[in-house]
Design goal:
2 domains, six-stranded parallel beta sheet, six-stranded mixed beta sheet, 11 helices
C-alpha cells in the first residue's frame, strides 16, 4: 500500500467512525464534468439559519447550475474539521471549502500539505506576523461587514426613541470588531447624541453559542436605556432576541434574515451573501481563474446588505429607509468610508 493510500484509508476510517460524512451527490454531474467540490461546515452545521445554511445554498446552486459534483461534512470539533479537509484533499477533490473564520489556520496547514488542491475559506482571516503569507492555493472569501453594519446602525439611530442603542458581540476578535465599528459609525452618523452600549460575550469561540450570556448582556443594555440592540454573536444572539422581546425593545439580526427568530422584535438584519460568495468561488475554480489571496465583498459587490424590503422590514419607517438608502449610495460612491476598527 502506498503512503497516500494509507493516509486516505486512515482518514476515511476516522471520518466514518466519527459519523461525520453527510454528502449530497449528483452522479451524472460527476460523470459529465469530473469537477468535484467538498465543503466542510462550521460547528453547528446545516439548519443554523445563518452562515452554514447560506454556504449550503451556494453549494447546492453550483451543483444544479454548474453541474459539479458536491459532498459536505458536518464536523464536531477542531480535529474533525482538519480531518475532513484532509480527506477531501486526499481524495483528489478540485476545490475544498471551509466555512467560518475558525477554519483559517486549518485551511492554511492542509493547503500547504496539498499544493495541487485549491482551497477556499468563508470569512477567512489572513495569517499575520512577520513573514506570514496566504498559501498560493488558498482563496480567502471575506466581507466588508462594517459597511452593512453601518446601514443597520443608521436604522437603529433613526429608530431609537431613547437615544440609547446596544451592540452585543460574540468573541472579542478583529472580525467582530468590524461589525461593532461599522454599527457605531452608522448610529452616530444619523444621531450624534446617541449612546452606543457595547459588550462581548467572551474571548473564545464558545462566545458564539451562549444564549444565556447574550440575554444577560442584552438585559444590562436595556436597563441602561437601550431600545434597539444589534448582535453579531451567532446563537448567543438568540438570548438577545429573547431579552428584547420580553422588554418590548427592537433587535437586529446578523448574517441572514433572522425575522423568524422573533417576528415583530427583529427590526431588520445585516445580511452577508455567503451563498453568492461560495457559488462565485466554485464557478471561478471550475473556469480555472480562482485567484489566490483575498476576495472581499461589500455593498458595491452586493456582498453585504440589510433587510429593508418586504414583510420582514415593516418596522422600518419609509423616511428611515430613504435616509439609509442615501447612505448606501454614499458608501458605494466612496463619499463615506466606514471604519473597520
Amino acid at each position: 500500500m502506498t503512503r497516500r493510500a494509507a493516509v486516505l484509508l486512515a482518514l476515511t476510517v476516522l471520518v466514518v467512525a466519527l459519523g461525520l460524512v453527510r454528502g449530497r451527490r449528483d452522479a451524472s454531474a460527476h460523470v459529465s464534468t469530473g469537477f468535484r467540490v467538498g465543503l466542510v461546515f462550521d460547528v453547528g452545521g446545516r439548519g443554523d439559519k445563518s452562515f452554514n445554511d447560506l454556504s449550503w445554498a451556494g453549494l447546492h446552486r453550483a451543483e444544479k447550475e454548474l453541474s459539479v459534483y458536491t459532498e459536505f461534512v458536518e464536523p464536531n470539533g477542531a480535529e474533525d474539521r482538519e480531518a475532513a479537509l484532509r480527506l477531501f484533499a486526499a481524495r483528489g477533490f478540485d476545490l475544498v471549502i471551509g466555512v467560518g473564520f475558525i477554519f483559517s489556520r486549518d485551511v492554511d496547514e492542509v493547503a500547504r500539505a496539498h499544493p495541487k488542491t485549491r482551497f477556499a475559506c468563508v470569512d477567512y482571516a489572513p495569517p499575520w506576523g512577520p513573514g506570514a503569507t496566504i498559501p498560493p492555493n488558498v482563496t480567502g472569501l471575506a466581507f466588508r461587514e462594517q459597511e452593512g453594519s453601518f446601514l443597520v446602525g443608521a436604522v437603529a439611530g433613526l429608530t431609537s426613541k431613547s437615544k440609547h442603542v446596544g451592540f452585543v458581540g460574540g468573541m472579542d476578535m478583529p472580525l467582530i470588531h468590524k461589525f461593532d465599528a461599522g454599527y457605531r459609525a452608522g448610529v452616530l452618523a444619523v444621531c450624534p447624541q446617541c449612546v452606543v452600549h457595547r459588550a462581548y460575550a467572551g474571548t473564545t469561540p464558545d462566545a458564539f453559542r451562549d444564549p444565556a450570556k447574550g440575554k444577560a448582556i442584552a438585559l444590562a443594555q436595556i436597563a441602561a436605556g437601550s431600545d434597539v440592540l444589534f448582535h453579531a454573536s451567532g446563537s448567543t444572539g438568540l438570548g438577545v432576541f429573547r431579552a428584547a422581546k420580553d422588554a418590548g425593545a427592537f433587535a437586529i439580526g446578523v448574517d441572514s434574515d433572522q425575522w423568524d427568530e422573533a417576528p415583530g422584535t427583529v427590526l431588520t438584519s445585516m445580511t452577508k451573501q455567503a451563498d453568492v460568495s461560495v457559488f462565485d468561488a466554485i464557478a471561478a475554480a471550475k473556469r480555472g481563474d480562482l485567484g489566490s489571496g483575498m476576495r472581499v465583498l461589500g455593498l458595491a459587490e452586493n456582498g453585504v446588505d440589510y433587510v429593508h424590503e418586504g414583510p420582514h422590514a415593516v418596522g422600518i419607517a419609509p423616511a428611515v429607509r430613504a435616509r439609509v438608502e442615501a447612505l448606501r449610495g454614499d458608501i458605494i460612491a466612496g463619499r463615506v468610508v466606514v471604519p473597520a476598527e
